[in-house]
Amino acid sequence: MSTVEMEVFSNAQLIILTILMFIGGEVFTSMFGLQLWKFKLKLLTKEKVASASSDISPSSTPTNNIVFDHVELGSLASKPEFQDGESLKFNSIKFLGCVVLGYLLVIHGLGVIMVSLYLAVISSARNVLKNKGLNMHTFSFFTTVSTFSSCGFVPTNENMMVFSKNSGLLLILIPQVLLGNTLLPSCLRFSIWVLGKIFKKKEYLCNYLLKNTRKLGFLHLLPSLHSSLLVVTVFGFIMVQLVAFLSLEWSSDSLSGLNSYQKIIGALFQSVNSRHTGETIVDLSIISPAILVLFVVMMYLPPYTSFLPIKDDDQNPLQPHERRKTRRGKVVENLIFSQLSYLAIFIVLVCIIERKQMKEDPLNFNVLNIVIEVISAYGNVGFTTGYSCKRQIHPNGDCQDKWYGFSGRWSDQGKLVLIAVMLFGRLKKFNMDGGRAWKLL
């Protein structure tokens, strides 16, 4: 969510932002979790290997130092007699880290190449960058990283509106949106399955990863049924939005100037981005309120939301044991609200802080626009209705329209609340079970 125009950044600053978006992306940060987990399992594996080594040659004292050597550990832990328990899990986590790294590099590499080739071939898209003084290679890297990491930033002030007629570019970015967010678990699982078929020596590790997803507990690797239904759910949501958007906006001003093919691709791009990435080809302030409400629902949903009609009794075998909590733990758990409750509190706070603006400028500072901004921040999407001087009831001669988000016109206190909402949304996975103490009958 931007509060300044993107074109004020120099080429060097865009490169720095690209690096920050890359290392702050969900896929990249998940690799750090894998490294920490691997380090913990490595210590456990060392103890097992040292114990096994002492059984083989108990009188050989100098070998104790060799056992703890990294190379020796890797060679011993890879033998079949050590491929059980924590040793097998250690090798699997190590292999999973390599798969995630490869997935990250391959998708980014293909994305940058395809965007660069499109800009090199299509003069209309290249001329947009030329007129704005943007470097083509910087734009390719920046947009690819931003799209995959679900940041939604584009080096142009108008986001993707200036490329609304470049359907080829939109089609290139759509897979980046899905592969980096909502379809990440399914694509990661498919990648592991393919690698197991290609590299027979790693097949046992691939099978272990695919069959023990719950035991591993890696957020981005889901069981087979969940991964399959996730694909169905994601495309189901996209189709619902696509049909609704085309039905209500086909002849509206938001899609004016586009032919039928461009309208369909543009609506598809908008529907895909509504879940998390937040890149847009239309001015959200002029589209139908019904579509805005639909977008609010889509932005609220977590990325891996899926329809699971079948209840697996073995989903959490430790659940009965884990439910035995102390009295203090139960009190804390009962005080935790649901995600929706916290969002309602944040919206109320913003309305209180911006009450003067809501009274003097009700067409811009209305409740729906505030709700969209807060839910967009919570979902780390970046959709915004913006601010228009033309909608002011009491025109201000000093008012200038700027190409940045609606929150750019908020007070400092309102922006601080929105920052808290963004952080809360990024960490929402740690509080998905909140509010269970409230029973709605």
From TrEMBL:
The record, for InterPro entries, names:
Cat_transpt (IPR003445), TrkH_K-transport (IPR051143)
Main localization is: membrane
Intracellular or extracellular location(s): Membrane
Which UniProt key words apply to this protein?
Ion transport, Membrane, Transmembrane, Transmembrane helix, Transport
Residue ranges annotated as coiled coil are none
One of the entry's Gene Ontology molecular-function terms is: monoatomic cation transmembrane transporter activity
Listed GO CC annotations = plasma membrane
| UniProt topology in membrane | Multi-pass membrane protein
A biological process term (GO) from this entry: metal ion transport
Chain ranges passing through the membrane? 12-37, 95-119, 139-156, 168-195, 225-248, 281-301, 335-353
Lineage: superkingdom? Eukaryota
Question: What Pfam families does the annotation carry?
Answer: TrkH
Which family does the UniProt entry place this protein in? Belongs to the TrkH potassium transport family. HKT (TC 2.A.38.3) subfamily.
Mind telling me what this protein is named? Answer: Cation transporter HKT6
